[in-house]
Design goal:
Length: 155
């Protein structure tokens, strides 16, 4: 039996192509799968799930789940599904509905993350530099919310 495919919304296809370092694009990711997993993680962080709507059937076409598994991304798909449903039965390998639901959750988080990326990258020429800035800003925000005693607040 063929493994299912991870689909990409048609309105996000150009963004996904631009995020990948391939065919003249100088994006920060090596593969479409890398870009989609990053987008899904971003969507989960901001709790942004968006239904796909119209699916892209051209470049990038739906990506085989096998590619995500071979790159070690299947735990991300599983963790997002458990976090969303709060039910470990979603990991069942014997229930095809569970697998479809896991993939749907992952696709919707990826689509939400791609929307967030599209907004953040609007007007940007170099996506790599912009993504590094976004990640470093996020890290600084997380560090500043730690509950440790900081003398700098008395300055």
């Amino acid at each position: 039996m063929a493994l299912p495919r991870i689909r990409i919304a048609k309105d996000k296809a150009e963004l996904v192509k631009a995020l990948v370092d391939f065919n003249g694009a100088r994006g920060p990711f090596q593969t479409y799968a890398d870009a989609i997993v990053f987008a899904a993680s971003l969507g989960a962080k901001y709790q942004k799930k968006v239904p796909l709507g119209v699916i892209s059937n051209t470049e990038p076409a739906p990506i085989s789940l096998e590619i995500f598994i071979s790159r070690g991304y299947d735990p991300v798909i599983n963790l997002l599904a458990i976090a969303q449903t709060q039910d470990t039965k979603i990991l069942s390998t014997h229930d095809s509905n569970a697998e479809e639901k896991r993939i749907q959750i992952f696709e919707e988080y990826a689509n939400g993350g791609l929307e967030k990326l599209r907004d953040e990258l609007r007007g940007t020429v170099d996506y790599t530099d912009r993504l590094l800035l976004i990640l470093s800003t996020q890290r600084v925000q997380e560090e500043s919310t730690d509950e440790e005693f900081d003398l700098s607040r008395f300055l």
